[in-house]
Amino acid sequence: MAHHEAVLRGYGLTMTQYTVLLLLTREGGLSGAQLARHCGVTQQSMSSVLSTLESKGLIRREPSPVHAKVQITSLTDDGRTVLDRAYQEVNVLERALAEAFTSAEYTALCTLLERATAVLVQQTGTASAAPPGGK
């Protein structure tokens, strides 16, 4: 993640901002609540992320045609350009990582990381659901 973030800093992006731009490219217009869920952050945090991206001219927010209080977020042309450039550099990092392993090693690594992530997500959910003091 640190290497990804170093690349993204060159484009003035955080990892969460980059993820938002990726999501908007793949899924089209999304609400702040939908983006927050996809990124695993609170709606308050996402509001700040979206304000920053909007001030940079990378996204636009417009009222939903269905819900008056909901803002739908989409990429601007500048946002797509910045994302495309950052994505190319991130891909270079990911290809280099993949090439450091044989195909079987890389598959095993991904499987192990997915398993570790599942355990962490499960434990985090369990820990945040437990009352204070563990009782």
Helix-strand makeup class: mainly alpha
Number of strands: 3
- Low-pLDDT parts are 127-135
- Gross geometry: globular
Tally of DSSP helical segments: 6
User: What value does the average pLDDT take?
Assistant: 88
Strand-and-helix sequence, N→C? HHEHHEEHH
Level of helix content?
Answer: 55-70%
Distance between the termini: 35 Å
User: Reading side by side through the largest sheet, how are the strands ordered?
Assistant: 1-3-2
Rg result: 18 Å
- Major sheet characteristics: 3 strands, antiparallel
Indicate the proportion of strand residues.
5-15%
Write a short abstract of this structure.
With 135 residues, this protein is mainly α. Helix content is 68%, strand content 9%.
List keywords for this structure.
single chain, about 140 residues, mainly alpha, three-stranded antiparallel sheet, 6 helices, about 10% strand
